[in-house]
Amino acid sequence: MPVTDFSTLQTQLGVLTWPLLLCAFLALMICLERSALFLHQTLLSIWPKKQAWIKALRQSSSAATTENVSVLLAQTSAQQDLLARGATLLLKQVHQPKVLREELLSLWLNKQQRDLQAGLKVLQVIGIISPLLGLLGTVLGLIDMFAQLGQSQGPVTPAQLSAGLGLAMNTTAAGLIIAVPAITAAHLFGIWAQGQCLRAGHVLNQLNLWLAGIEDISIDSNQYQAFSKVSSNSRSSSTEQKSAFNAHTQIESQT
Q1: Mutual orientation of helices 120-151 and 158-211 as an angle, nearest 10°?
Q2: Which of 110, 139, 142, 237 would you label with 252, given CA atoms 20 to 30 Å apart?
Q3: What's residue 2's pLDDT?
Q4: In this structure, are residues 190 and 31 in contact, taking their beta carbons and an 8 Å threshold?
Q5: How far is the C-alpha of 47 from the C-alpha of 40, rounded, in Å?
Q6: What's the pTM?
């Protein structure tokens, strides 16, 4: 039965049977592998116990000390999700300057994004090649049809047209059937990978600020403590400037 099915498929697709099957096989394997990674990372990110350290960090009101950094490092080292691995990397470099930790975090996030997007370029290439293979099959089918018509001495019959037109339409359909899921999956997995890295980068930047000595890092707050200090200073300086300006205006009006 499989031999018969393959023979029928080869009759319908012609010489492009193996190239189209190869594209379909590669696209299917990449989609399955990326789907498994997506499910794994999603389960890790929504598991409450796995993300307990993030909740504790957001609710923290104390500065980073050797004791609480050690506790946090013990929690993140036992986990394998993206955020925990990034946090472990930062906590192990707690004695380094903040700028160096930021550079290290940037390099690490770039590597993680490349890993999350592995294989997506191949999916995009398959999505481009498959319709072209289908178009090539269409051209070959039309050439075969016209060759048969040229050899025919009698009137043209539907049977003479069906073989060439069938090959042309079948290869075009097969190329589109492969290309549409491949391109869709490549874009969806790319959006997911970018979102994962942006979310991880946001949380890890908060952790880096906490390690730098900023006490209030709650994301629910409208302003970070460092920014609020700057704002208060800027407000006081602007008030002084305004008072000086008013005094200067009054002196000029009196003169």
Answers
A1: 170
A2: 237
A3: 53
A4: no
A5: 11
A6: 0.72
